Structures are given as C-alpha cells and as structure tokens.
C-alpha cells in the first residue's frame, strides 16, 4: 500500500496588515493617531505574542518606539492597534510594524510579520512648540520641569548665552503662568545679571526659513530678535529693531516681511529682564 501523505499542520498565520494615520495632513510636532490592523490568516488561534513599532528605520532610526502584547487572535480574526505619536521635523518617515517579535508563535508563513508604512510630515505646515508636550514620550509636560535635552528629538536646543561671563551654566525651567507654559531661567543659584542673559535656540538638524517667538515680559521694556545662518552664531541673517513690550502682555515677534532666510540659531534679548518664552513657531 502507498505511504499516506502527512497531514499538514494546522497553524496560525499572523499578518501585519493595513496602517492608517489621522489627520491626513500632519504637521511637525503635532500628535497624530496611528491605527494598524494585525490579522490571523491561519487556521487556528495564534496564542499570545509581542509586537513593536519602529517610528523610523532610517534617518534617524527610531526603533522600538512603541511596543505591546496581544493575548491571542482567533483564526480569521484581527486586532487593531491604536496609539499616538509625533515627529519634530519635516519629511517622510519609513515606519515598520513587527508582529511576534520574539518568535513565540509557530506559523504557516512568518514572512508577512512585518509591514512598512511611510508617514509624511507636511512641509507646508509649521512646527509649533508651546512646551505642553514632551517629545521623548509624547506625554503632557507637567511644570515645573528642568529643560535639558528633552527637545533634541525635535532638533532644538535651548540655553542662555553665558559666553564671556562668569555665570557658568544657568539652568532653564518650564514653569506655569496662568495655564501657559513658560521657559525661564532658574533664579535659585544665579545672579540677576546672569538670569537676564539672551536666550539661544539652536536648530540642530537643518536650517529653517522663518521663526516666530512669543514672549511674556515681566515689565515694560524692549525685546530684540536675531537670526544667525550658522550654528556658531557669527553670520547674521536678520536683526530686528527693538520691539516695545509691556508687562504681562504676550507679544509675538517675527520679521515684518515674508523673505525666506537661513536660520540655524535664534537669539532673543530683553535688556533688564529675563527672557520668558511661551511659544516658538518654525517654518521650513
């Protein structure tokens, strides 16, 4: 008698399915929703497995940005993953979802366990920073918080210009004023002269063409805004006249024209008082 053919094993087949992003036009710095469907195209229940989402597999790599565990998917069934994310720069990010990252499941086909989905950040929309969101975790920023390198992921660095002084490093804090977040220097261990130094904002990744800053003055006075085309702060691309400011009245400062410029560093000065920054808007 002929030898009987072995019965094929009845196995699950996990598939990294479709991805959807909302809203359709995503601005840099904006929280958007990621929805990804994982299906089981096999003939039996999958069992528990882990998944991971890479926010970018290149330029720069942001691997395992989010992960989680699914207890099981029945044969022919699906599960939807939904989570939030934000990017701090323009361009297209090649994201990747990987299911069963630890190889816990024996499948009929594991070649479809990864899905690549591009996310495009609209370069016609500005990057708005109001210091209400932490880029590293996409969670609300709860003041008071010392401002170190949290915004490096959004290609921004903040510090006081202590060049040529004996002030050392003056920490910056994000604090609350009437529900608005303010970036201010720490007065605890610094002299009055040191906390009144200019605020530097370095644009780390590439130049931008325009910047707006919103300040909340402590007292009546003047404010000045300077753009530099280089990260060393030697090549001026715009220098404003003094803008009059009034105590506790927010003021937005930007060039009066629409001329694109090369901006790698932004310097804000408020002679006689500390710079209190509440909002920064950058245009590509």
Quickly list its features:
single chain, 284 residues, mainly beta, six-stranded antiparallel beta sheet, four-stranded antiparallel beta sheet, 1 helix, 22 strands, elongated
How would you describe this protein?
By secondary structure, the protein is mainly β. The protein is built from one helix and 22 strands. The strands form six sheets. Strands 12, 15, 17, 18, 19 and 21 form a six-stranded antiparallel β-sheet that branches. It is elongated, with a radius of gyration of 25 Å.
Helix content estimate: under 10%
Unreliable stretches covering 5 or more consecutive residues: none
Q: Strand share of the residues? A: 35-45%
**Dominant shape:** elongated
Itemize the secondary structure elements and their pairings.
Layout: E1 14-22, E2 32-40, E3 49-54, E4 66-70, E5 78-85, E6 91-99, E7 114-121, E8 127-129, E9 133-134, E10 139-140, E11 145-147, E12 156-160, E13 172-177, E14 180-185, H1 192-195, E15 199-203, E16 210-215, E17 221-228, E18 236-239, E19 243-245, E20 251-253, E21 265-269, E22 277-283
Antiparallel strand pairs: 1-2, 2-5, 3-4, 3-6, 6-7, 8-22, 9-10, 11-13, 12-15, 13-14, 15-21, 16-20, 16-22, 17-18, 17-19, 17-21
